[in-house]
Amino acid sequence: MSADWYPGIRAFCTHWKHAPMLQQTFETLEREFADENDACIDAAKGLVECACRVLIEELDDPVSPKKPVEADPKLGHLVGVATRLLDLGEIRDRAFADLIKQHNNLTETLRVLRNQAGTLSHGKDGFISKLSAHHRRSSMLAADAIITFLHEAYLEREPDPIRTLEPYERFEVSNALIDEYAAVRSEDNEDGLLNVSVILPGGDEVPLAIEPSRLLFGVDREAYKLVLNACREAKAAEPQDVEVA
């Protein structure tokens, strides 16, 4: 079966490739769908749930949280919270608001389909026949529609750099702006820290202090390892103090 049945899911999981549980769920979905197993229906529902948790964790404001407090919230509740955090319900035209509400109905349909047909969530009669490819594709299409709807809306937002789970590369436009208008001056201090001053366009400065090891570890792991090996050699070459009895 072609992966064209879930392009939106694939796009979402590619964007969040640094989310390990999401990737594990996606791998399960791909494997079960390719093997024509009904377990892909469970995986489709699970992936929607995992995707919603990723977006809620990314977008929720800790000062005024909307994140569900239940340990196991319903799928419809998770999709609803993600929708609110993306401001998708704030539409002046009633017809479009009703259209968006249909995603809640689609979510409920996917949940019911998982409960009735998924082989992993609930034990089934061991002698019943597998579903047809059309049923499995229906679950893929439902999950893909929900995730595409949320993902495309999310991509139009500017993440908050203070609490985001996104990598540095997500801020390409902002990074380029800072690199163009800000300058950096650095010097060592007596405490072994690297004093860095970021010079703003108006001449004001933002002072920072960071250990060289932390800078290397966060920016370039290969450089960190190179410097570490050089420092180990330097330490080994130092004369050893010999205690006199």
Q: Compute the gyration radius: what is it?
A: 25 Å
Helix content: 55-70%
The proportion of residues in beta strands is 5-15%
- Number-wise, the strands total 3
Distance between the termini: 79 Å
Short description:
56% of the residues lie in helices and 7% in strands. The protein is mainly α and 245 residues long.
Structural features, described:
The protein has 245 residues and is mainly alpha-helical. Helix content is 56%, strand content 7%. A three-stranded antiparallel β-sheet has the order 1-2-3. The radius of gyration is 25 Å and the shape is elongated. The model has no long low-confidence stretch (mean pLDDT 84).
Write the layout of secondary structure elements.
Elements: H1 7-15, H2 20-34, H3 39-59, H4 75-85, H5 94-117, H6 133-155, H7 172-181, E1 183-188, E2 194-199, E3 205-210, H8 212-219, H9 221-237
Antiparallel strand pairs: 1-2, 2-3
Key terms:
9 helices, 245 residues
